[in-house]
Amino acid sequence: MQSASPATPLPLPPPTCLPSLEVGHRFESAGRTITESDIVNFACLSGDFNRLHVDHEYARSTPFGQRIAHGLLVLSVLSGLTTQSNGYRLLEPYVLALIDINCRFPKPTFIGDTIVVQVTVTEKTEQYRPGKDKVVFRREAVNQRGDVVVQADFAMVLRSLEGSA
Question: MaoC-like domain spans which residues (predicted)?
Fold first, then answer.
């Protein structure tokens, strides 16, 4: 079986299909429920067996009163939900690199919480490099109670969108 050469660029979608990536542009992902299996599997994968995540009796004695998901697990789910969203899929052929992430975890995520990701363009630098723009996307994981549980600013380099929208 033959595959396309890695040097062969994929065709870009027609400019009429792209959203305007001005500051304030928003899109949202579908939802996903965080399960006990997610937490156990992430603990095994990462080696992070902090009792707050895996020990029911210990976690019950904490201010949270129950086990919480690893922050990095929820950040990973946030990333996956974003890349599966229609808003991101339109941009994907333009994405060249992730260059920075700033992240915070304002609230815990519990087993059974369902999160959606709200993505907002917060900064745009056209021609950051020749033919390339820098765009900062604020991605917020929001649970079913409306609480932001992860807030992360993803700085990304994209092929220039100038004149594309």
Answer: 27-127
What is the residue whose two structure tokens read 């979608």? 13
Contacts of 57 (CB under 8 A, 6+ apart): none
Distance CA 112, CA 80 (A): 18
Task: Please give the model's pTM, rounded to 2 decimal places.
Answer: 0.85
Q: Which helix (H) or strand (E) holds 37?
A: helix 36-46
Of residues 36, 37, 32, 104, the one with CA closest to residue 72: 104
Neighbours of 68 (CB within 10 A): 24
pLDDT of res. 11: 57
Looking at the DSSP bridge assignments, the partners of residue 80 are none
Among candidate residues 55, 88, 48, the one with its CA nearest the CA of residue 71:
48
Distance CA 23, CA 54 (A): 40
Provide the 10 A C-beta neighbour count for residue 117: 27
User: Amino acid letter at 138?
Assistant: R
Amino acid occupying residue 26: R
First to last CA, the chain: 37
What pLDDT digit, counting tens, does each position of 65-123 carry?
Answer: 999 999 999 999 999 999 999 999 999 999 999 999 999 999 999 999 999 999 999 99
| Residue pair 118/24 in contact by the 8 Å Cβ criterion | no
